[in-house]
Amino acid sequence: MPIDTHTKILATVGPATASKKMLEELVKSGADAFRFNFSHGTREEHAERYQTVRDLSVKYNRHLTIIADMQGPKLRIGTFKKDEVLLKEGHIFVLDMLNEAGDETRVTLPHKEIFAAVKKGDTLLLNDGNIRLEVLSNENYVMQTKVKVGGKLSAHKGVNLPNVKLPISAITAKDKQDLAFALQLGVDWVCLSIVQSVDDVRMARKLIGDKAWIISKLEKPSAIEELDDIVKESDGIMVARGDLGVEWPIHSVPVLQKLIVKTCRKYGRPVIVATQMLESMIVNPTPTRAEVSDVATAVYDGADAVMLSAETAVGSYPAEAVSMMHNIINEVEDEPSYFDSIQRYKDLSDCKNMADAITYAASEMPRILPKVAGIITYSASGFTTLSMARERANLPILAVTLSEEVARRMGIIWGVRADMCDSLFNDFSKLEEHALAVAKKNKIGRKGDYLVIIAGYPLGQKGMTNMLHTVQI
Fold first, then answer.
1. pLDDT per residue over 325-355, tens digit each?
2. Which amino acids are annotated catalytic?
3. Which helix H or strand E contains 237, and what residues bound it?
4. Residue (of 289, 286, 251, 256) closest to 274 by Cα position
5. CATH assignment of 8-72+170-336, among 3.90.226.10, 3.20.20.190, 3.20.20.60, 3.10.620.30
6. What strands lie across the sheet with 159-160, from one edge to the other?
7. Topology of 84-160 in CATH?
8. pLDDT at 429
């Protein structure tokens, strides 16, 4: 069972991987974390899969991470009299609030918020951006548009509005119910869809509190405008390249991906790169060369995790997709220039406090002290470990904590393995003794090697990292 890479693998659970047998295959193939997509599936199904993952955590002595991905506000058109219609370029197409099946000339758009926000000259995208409409007028819930790019259109296709900030919350009534259920289950992270501003994250924080950490999915131009604030307010970020590639010109997505990853590195927030990473493996046993390069690029950029979506949710080769992703990660991380490339983001001006200074110093110790085998973080909250992971040191990071919840959250953090301890040690001799024991248990180092220990002292106090210590094995 491969757990030897720094970059983590997040697998989406769906019909293809709902059974205990298939979930176990994903773990054995290298999955570190599991995404439950609340846009699909019943609560009973999510609860059953949740328990299976927790059981596998015990069986394999792994702190597997579970992420609940909220659906968010989904904007869709209504129905048509036929199975599909053809919109021709240059023709007029009307969107209105009438409760009637549509045709080639009109369709229902059951979202007052869109009518309230859209103005003449704005662009509407339908069906994942394949159809483009230009707004000619918008009055009394009747919007006249000109078809700029036509095509076939069927019922309930999605609507995207580039550069239009809608007066809607990222958390719908359905999300609130799903969120309460997910938190009751005990999920480790909650993923917010369609985040438009930092206020969306703050609202979620009020609902979630400290019961889970928050991942903001970045897919709207307005979110990119508030990128720094959203990253700082969130616990993690997902580069949601699907809708991002609809709302922005598709050729901008690689540049945005690098910008988001770099910003997350700056503020010490874990970042997941998602969508179509091994898309062809939904139906084929091997990916394209371009897909392999895409995964490798995310690893070279220093992403904390890479995600499989339909590949594991509904694909024909879910375990093979996880195994392939692990092999790509392993190949990149074994390449001699890998660590130099991901450490190029280091900038001492980003060090703002004691924790940053301590973890930066710890990452530099292998350059000075020979035979450093690993870094052990003692952390009550997990934030010491996040700060250490930001430095991308060429060493394993072992996160020691009293909290099972904190240990489980580490499954998407770059380079980190988690371990539990029964009590904290404020006596240095006992701390050293425990660090040596936990390193031996996790097969880190050999006789004569050094371990770097960082913590907040006295141990157990949240939000304080002030100690760097070394011990020789």
1. 999 999 999 998 998 888 755 666 666 778 8
2. 35, 76, 217, 275
3. strand 236-240
4. 256
5. 3.20.20.60
6. 106-108, 92-96, 142-149, 131-139, 123-126, 159-160
7. M1 Pyruvate Kinase; Domain 3 (2.40.33)
8. 75
